[in-house]
Design brief:
The radius of gyration is 20 Å and the shape is elongated. It is built from seven helices and two strands, in the order H-H-H-E-E-H-H-H-H. Helices cover about 65% and strands about 5% of the residues. It has a two-stranded antiparallel sheet with strand order 1-2. It is mainly alpha-helical. Strand 1 and strand 2 form a beta hairpin.
């Protein structure tokens, strides 16, 4: 069975909420779903062109001829809803950090401690970003309807709990390395 390109569903999902440019889609990926999904412009624009050619999205009239504003079509919404109803496919985890850590016995211990300490700082930064988004949701964002709020909160909470668990793991492993 061929592997489905999930970028298309990320884009259809974003466009199911609101129309937008390729830049708007990238911004949504970087802010709202970044704790579990990322996309780059190199993936977004070819998929937008593919979705256009398949009739799943269309362009709207834009105030600027250089900006294409995309919107989902009825056919696109039907395909998106069909995909939503399918059980998710478990995807293998890929972590360069964990790969390096697996073979870190080849490094001097202080370098491994430094590697984990830097990773811990990255996780602290991620946790702060997630918390800032959570604070925004708590205050209320005018573009987010109360119905959508729960569906934004749930994956955000997952990211927060995951970051907290990784921080706890970092502390545990650092303690083992320095003792």
């Amino acid at each position: 069975m061929a592997i489905k390109n999930k970028t298309r569903y990320a884009i259809l999902g974003i466009l199911s909420i609101h129309s937008g440019t390729g830049y708007d889609i990238k911004k949504y990926c970087d802010t709202v779903i970044s704790n579990f999904w990322n996309e780059n412009f190199g993936h977004i624009y070819p998929v937008l062109n593919q979705l256009l050619s398949e009739g799943l999205i269309q362009t709207e009239d834009s105030s600027s001829p250089r900006k294409k504003v995309y919107t989902i079509t009825t056919t696109g919404r039907e395909e998106f809803l069909k995909w939503l109803a399918e059980p998710p496919v478990q995807q293998p985890v890929r972590s360069e950090f964990m790969l390096k850590l697996t073979f870190a016995s080849n490094l001097p211990r202080p370098e491994v401690v430094k590697m984990i300490t830097e990773y811990k700082q990255q996780q602290l930064n991620r946790l702060k970003e997630y918390q800032a988004v959570a604070d925004s949701l708590e205050i209320g964002i005018k573009e987010v309807t109360p119905v959508r709020e729960l569906y934004l909160y749930a994956p955000l909470r997952y990211g927060i709990i995951n970051a907290q668990a990784v921080l706890s793991w970092c502390d545990e492993i650092l303690e083992l390395l320095v003792s």
